[in-house]
Design brief:
Helices cover 72% and strands 0% of the residues. The chain is mostly helical and 258 residues long. It has a single domain, classed as Orthogonal Bundle (MetI-like fold), CATH 1.10.3720.
Length: 258
């Protein structure tokens, strides 16, 4: 299973060190070539790839942090606050997960156009700050992790609802919020369709749109495209090396809570 998971990444690196002819040859070459530095330099010369990496980092970080905090707020409200229509509203949130995301593209684009945000990074950030799955995820963790008696005691001591959330509830579910934020970061980094629709200027491209710009309308240089794809994947691999253990711990903690 490890081999099946890692081999596509290895094959992408092999192709990024060769050319299109080598990539499509039979039998296939399984050893890296010596063309990676040339193709990497060609990627940076063809498109503003460094700028695209920076744009993706800004967008993905904002979405990851936003989902971790805002979905935790909503999950806390649905799990621990009592208000009229709570169950109905939560059901509506859950039902939105059954609606394909592609159906929201046209109204979403119209909203961004009315705001004058087309071809801006905030058009990518704002729609991704909260997700129905994130609210559901944090609501389940809040329900299973936080004891109501603890919140009642804090209320008796004079804590406000915001203080109860930020000083008691959120620290208890911080591993789950970290996992959710990491998922949001990766999804935003890999997103192609919405940035492809809303971004027009090369200096605002995200990394996935920059990879698309490496291809012309007639053919695809597989070596160049795979070199760009490998450079775009490399930051995620580095991120996983540093936070992979915390990611697994957060998922396992959520699996065994309650």
């Amino acid at each position: 299973m490890v081999f099946l998971s890692v081999f596509p990444l290895y094959w992408m690196f092999v192709v990024s060190t060769t050319d299109s002819a080598t990539a499509t040859s039979l039998p296939p070459h399984v050893l890296p070539g010596d063309n990676f530095l040339y193709l990497a330099n060609l990627v940076f010369d063809t498109v503003p790839f460094v700028q695209a990496l920076g744009n993706s980092l800004v967008v993905s970080t904002a979405i990851g942090v936003g989902q971790a905090v805002l979905c935790a707020l909503a999950g806390f409200a649905f799990a621990k606050l009592h208000f009229r229509g709570r169950n109905t509203l939560f059901l509506v949130v859950v039902l939105t997960m059954t609606v394909p995301a592609q159906l929201a593209i046209i109204p979403q684009y119209l909203v961004m156009s009315k705001l004058g945000w087309v071809d801006t990074l905030q058009a990518l950030i704002l729609p991704g700050l909260v997700s129905a799955f994130g609210i559901f995820w944090m609501r389940q963790h809040m329900s299973a992790t936080i004891d109501d008696d603890l919140l009642h005691a804090a209320r008796v001591d004079g804590a406000t609802t915001w203080q109860i959330f930020w000083r008691i509830a959120f620290p208890l579910v911080r591993p789950a919020a970290f996992v959710l934020g990491l998922f949001g970061f990766v999804n935003a980094w890999n997103d192609f369709l919405w940035p492809f629709i809303v971004l027009k200027s090369p200096e605002r491209y995200t990394v996935q749109i920059a990879i698309k710009a490496l291809q012309n309308s007639r053919d695809i240089d597989l070596g160049l495209a795979m070199s760009g794809s490998f450079l775009a994947t490399l930051p995620l691999l580095v991120l996983f090396v540093f936070v992979g253990r915390r990611l697994v711990q957060g998922i396992m903690e959520g699996a065994f809570k309650g």
